[in-house]
């Protein structure tokens, strides 16, 4: 991934995270934007050059079809974000993208990959289960007062 792709992905990913926070945490739009922005800045203090973080662009016919962000430390990976652009969804490309990612991790000697799926993203949950991912716990939250 190049710097310009990183900026494009960052905007798309941030918007997705805002939507997730509003839908699954019931945050107001303003609070979701603030929290998502803080989270991204904390996770990627050096942007694309943040240590142990890796970014990939998945291409189809020489065109960006999706983006991926993962961290890899001590041969354990965490998939922070995977995104297939809408015009490429529903064509089996997500499967190909994940397969390529898992192959890359295997070649790098990783023994494990973890991820988090939003509870309302049943399509992704089903796909991850097809690859053998299993549920290891649940994130839970309770809003106290107002934002």
Polypeptide structure, described:
Helix 1 crosses helix 2. The protein has a single domain, classed as Aminopeptidase (3-Layer(aba) Sandwich). The mean pLDDT is 92. Strands 1-2-3-4 form a 4-stranded mixed sheet, with helices on both faces. The termini are far apart. It is an alpha+beta fold. Helix 3 links the parallel strand 3 and strand 4.
Descriptive tags:
Aminopeptidase, 22% strand, 4 strands, 147 residues, four-stranded mixed sheet
What's the short story on this structure?
By secondary structure, the chain is α+β, with helices and mostly antiparallel strands.
Write the layout of secondary structure elements.
Blueprint: H1 3-24, H2 29-43, E1 53-60, E2 63-73, E3 76-84, H3 93-107, E4 112-115, H4 122-130
Parallel strand pairs: 3-4
Antiparallel strand pairs: 1-2, 2-3
Helix pairs in contact: 1-2
* Assigned CATH class: Alpha Beta
Quaternary structure annotation: single chain
In round numbers, the mean pLDDT is 92
Number of discrete helical segments:
4
| Proportion of beta-strand residues | 15-25%
The CATH homologous superfamily is named Gcn5-related N-acetyltransferase (GNAT)
Which segments are poorly predicted (pLDDT under 50) over 5 or more consecutive residues?
none
The tally of beta strands, per DSSP, is 4
| SSE class | alpha+beta
Report the major sheet: 4 strands, mixed
Terminal CA distance reads 36 Å
Task: List SSEs in N-to-C order.
Answer: HHEEEHEH
How many domains make up the coordinates? 1
Specify the helix fraction band.
40-55%
């Amino acid at each position: 991934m190049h710097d310009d792709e990183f900026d494009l992905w960052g905007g798309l990913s941030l918007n997705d995270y805002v939507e997730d926070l509003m839908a699954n945490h019931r945050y107001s739009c303003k609070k979701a934007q603030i929290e998502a922005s803080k989270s991204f800045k904390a996770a990627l203090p050096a942007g694309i050059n943040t240590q142990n973080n890796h970014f990939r662009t998945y291409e189809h016919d020489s065109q960006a079809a999706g983006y991926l962000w993962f961290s890899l430390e001590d041969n354990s990976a965490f998939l922070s974000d995977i995104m297939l652009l809408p015009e490429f969804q529903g064509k089996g490309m997500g499967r190909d993208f994940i397969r390529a990612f898992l192959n890359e991790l295997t070649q790098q000697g990783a023994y494990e990959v973890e991820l988090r799926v939003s509870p309302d993203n049943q399509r992704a949950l089903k796909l991850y289960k097809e690859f053998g991912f299993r549920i290891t716990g649940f994130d839970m939250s309770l809003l106290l007062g107002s934002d």
